[in-house]
Amino acid sequence: MSLLELQKKIIYGPINSRRLGKSLGINLMPTTYKLCSFNCIYCQYGWTKAHTLDVGDHLSDLPTKDEVKNALEDWLKDKKRVDYITFSGNGEPSLHPEFDKIVIEVKKLRDKYLPQAKVAILSNSSSLNLPEVKKALRKLDVRIMKLDCGTSELFRKMSQPAPKITYQDVVENLRDLKSVIVQSVFVGGDITNTVIDEVEEWAEKIRYILPEKVQIYSLDRPSAYKNLAKVDHKILSKIAELAQNASGVKIEVF
Ligand code: SF4
Description:
Helix content is about 35%, strand content about 20%. By secondary structure, it is α/β, with parallel strands linked by helices.
């Protein structure tokens, strides 16, 4: 198996997602390289090429609001069914400067063509210092937000955030956002978040954030950093049990 190929269009899939069922993807990032505020060691797309919170130098590579709207309408007007319409793709979707306006257009199209579908995001939780991003996220039906680590030190190693992103801000913003699903990836190998002290710290942050639930999983395919290993399902179940007991929050293993 190899790294996942970048999404080549604005609309991709639908893919059969373990967590979302049949999910149609919307990629708001460039189609020829990954633009992300993180450079996660386990990223299935490989290393981040444009590593920033500020997409100002990349605007010509991003789709416009109308391009997103037209591409989605082209797909939806054939009345194909999906369970979710999900912002994801080649980096962090909420970095798009028109993210709030795009969310509004996507919801209008969902209401017109597929009212039973939910509009969701898979986000790395890094852009929530911007009030307009929080406002846009609150308009979505489902917010699946990343928190892999319990300490700032490991966060810097695993997520490799762009400048100005702090672990403390991520945790506080997730707590403030409310009604979120936290997603956490566990990895073994040279760099791991499975040691007991780290799991306890992570569980403590889950208790503080109080998400609706937490979804944990491990690697499905090769990652950017090669010296990582998939975490066994039994270990994931133990992590889930420990964190659920410590936090009172439901933890699902995928
Ligand atoms: S946040 Fe997502 S897209 Fe960005 S580097 Fe991490 S795994 Fe890859």
